[in-house]
């Protein structure tokens, strides 16, 4: 065979070999559906054989919203309109969402000893013809046949009509009455001072609305209509009385211009023309608040992948992840919530839910001076919008749609508004290197499941994370981002914040978040136990003449709601437990520990009239006996009637026994925010948040994560490339993984062996 023939034969062999390798790789990739890099990028829902549509906690579907709406609209006695722009004199349908059944009957059903509770909706009506707020339970779904008024049952009365949220009609009336009618009186001032007419400005509103129940009086603070307009205050505000349903009866009570107050726009105009007003000339700046990138985008951040496919399944609203299972949902008023959370088949929590997000501002002028905002007053859950893949959540997360009926005439589908993903943190869950006498390494990556949603109302965005660890712990975190609220720089304003732009002060404010945690520890007969330490002096047994100070375990059971209402302004034991009388194998009472992470500012003094609406924020943790009618710490109506709120949480604490009862923990967390230059253009999440852990404490006989498939063990007798006790050793061989380096470990070469 000549050289040319040998070359051609070799080339043919090489080509055939490479073709086969490529085909094998292609086949391997096709044969591994669900592995990231091989499966479609869109997160899918997978069936894992769970309860699915049988879940009593699943949010209402679009079809169920429609069925409830048809039923309510057909009731002649209510005479309801579904016009989302209905004026306050009409009877309007504001909100439809799931009505949670009573816990006792739900608990019996979940344990297989009772019938499934009827599926029902809660309907919020604003009866303008009677100036009354009403809430109805409508059921059973999917074809309703009954309704009942539950307003008094829930709130003890009918909340004042003035406590309803601001409607589409009212916002539109703000625009037309103030901006088009009233501001025409000072057009020349607006042109000279701010370079434009009213249609060139945006407004920010104050909350609550006025100084007493029954009123609707709002400061409207004007900003330049530029990106991030929250950062561009004009120093021009109007205090508007819009209590009357008739717009012609609305009245401007005060006007603020450049730190000076006037009785009306006519008063401002007269004094301005007489030269008795300190004038200002301002222009908005487009670049100040824009979030457009300032550098060219290059590459992408790291991408987290699931090399062997997702380890969680999703069936409707039921999630199964390793030893965890739970239902989830989104309250349109309060936000994200989890139900029936079980670890290794045992229920740990019946409900863990967001309740409220509150902020109290400090300022020297107008709107910001009065602002005490409660996000439930804007139906916080309905502000959960579509999440941005790869930024708000990992690119390969599973995304879930929600369906909302709030101030609309048809159900709104919000795509991708909840995301679910497994996440490995930057540190191991546990590890130890034995490096003396005997040698070995055992550890486990800290992989957990995260369920996330983000709410954004006005200037702030809150990121809500519910995390499930492999050791049976659960963590809830909230982070704040978005735009800070600013006021126009005037004399004395730097007492309330820092200057963050040419004419803007970032105002000091608090963030408080409220959560409901209904733990069921080995059943519903639980008690509240605290643990801490104290030094005490003991005699040294082998040297009686000497004494030593040693820490000692201090345990105390708190037996009433009053004892267990633990305020931020008191010294609180560091270990707080919901405990069972049942014990683990070592004879200790099984419990879960509540560990709060909070950097909050001071709560409002109780002498402040508005404090009643946020009385939950007095307490870091408060334990109450479970009652179905004490289901939330706040309400849709607290924002606009803070002086006599529909829900005053402090009334739940009334001295009842919490010994061997079904208990609920109400947890508050948050942080103090003193804005600074680095909050421009946006506040970052790093360091701006709070949360809490729910941690097993003698609940198990040992750490359950020792049974995790993620556990790794190494010792010198095991080849470093063996996959038997170290799954990382085989990552390089995965068909859909990037080009990874081979796993190696040389740590045992460095230890001292005896």
Automatic annotation (TrEMBL):
<dbReference type="InterPro" id="IPR015798">
    <property type="entry name" value="Cu_amine_oxidase_C"/>
</dbReference>
<feature type="modified residue" description="2',4',5'-topaquinone">
    <location>
        <position position="460"/>
    </location>
</feature>
<dbReference type="GO" id="GO:0048038">
    <property type="term" value="F:quinone binding"/>
</dbReference>
<feature type="domain" description="Copper amine oxidase catalytic">
    <location>
        <begin position="305"/>
        <end position="706"/>
    </location>
</feature>
<keyword id="KW-0560">Oxidoreductase</keyword>
<keyword id="KW-0479">Metal-binding</keyword>
<dbReference type="Pfam" id="PF02727">
    <property type="entry name" value="Cu_amine_oxidN2"/>
</dbReference>
<feature type="domain" description="Copper amine oxidase N2-terminal">
    <location>
        <begin position="66"/>
        <end position="146"/>
    </location>
</feature>
<dbReference type="InterPro" id="IPR036460">
    <property type="entry name" value="Cu_amine_oxidase_C_sf"/>
</dbReference>
<dbReference type="Pfam" id="PF02728">
    <property type="entry name" value="Cu_amine_oxidN3"/>
</dbReference>
<dbReference type="GO" id="GO:0009308">
    <property type="term" value="P:amine metabolic process"/>
</dbReference>
<dbReference type="Pfam" id="PF01179">
    <property type="entry name" value="Cu_amine_oxid"/>
</dbReference>
<protein>
    <recommendedName>
        <fullName>Amine oxidase</fullName>
        <ecNumber>1.4.3.-</ecNumber>
    </recommendedName>
</protein>
<keyword id="KW-0812">Transmembrane</keyword>
<dbReference type="GO" id="GO:0008131">
    <property type="term" value="F:primary methylamine oxidase activity"/>
</dbReference>
<feature type="region of interest" description="Disordered">
    <location>
        <begin position="32"/>
        <end position="53"/>
    </location>
</feature>
<feature type="active site" description="Schiff-base intermediate with substrate; via topaquinone">
    <location>
        <position position="460"/>
    </location>
</feature>
<feature type="transmembrane region" description="Helical">
    <location>
        <begin position="7"/>
        <end position="29"/>
    </location>
</feature>
<keyword id="KW-0186">Copper</keyword>
<keyword id="KW-0801">TPQ</keyword>
<keyword id="KW-1133">Transmembrane helix</keyword>
<feature type="compositionally biased region" description="Basic and acidic residues">
    <location>
        <begin position="43"/>
        <end position="53"/>
    </location>
</feature>
<dbReference type="GO" id="GO:0005507">
    <property type="term" value="F:copper ion binding"/>
</dbReference>
<keyword id="KW-0472">Membrane</keyword>
<dbReference type="InterPro" id="IPR015800">
    <property type="entry name" value="Cu_amine_oxidase_N2"/>
</dbReference>
<dbReference type="InterPro" id="IPR015802">
    <property type="entry name" value="Cu_amine_oxidase_N3"/>
</dbReference>
<feature type="active site" description="Proton acceptor">
    <location>
        <position position="375"/>
    </location>
</feature>
<dbReference type="GO" id="GO:0005886">
    <property type="term" value="C:plasma membrane"/>
</dbReference>
<feature type="domain" description="Copper amine oxidase N3-terminal">
    <location>
        <begin position="165"/>
        <end position="259"/>
    </location>
</feature>
<dbReference type="InterPro" id="IPR016182">
    <property type="entry name" value="Cu_amine_oxidase_N-reg"/>
</dbReference>
<dbReference type="InterPro" id="IPR000269">
    <property type="entry name" value="Cu_amine_oxidase"/>
</dbReference>
<comment type="similarity">
    <text>Belongs to the copper/topaquinone oxidase family.</text>
</comment>
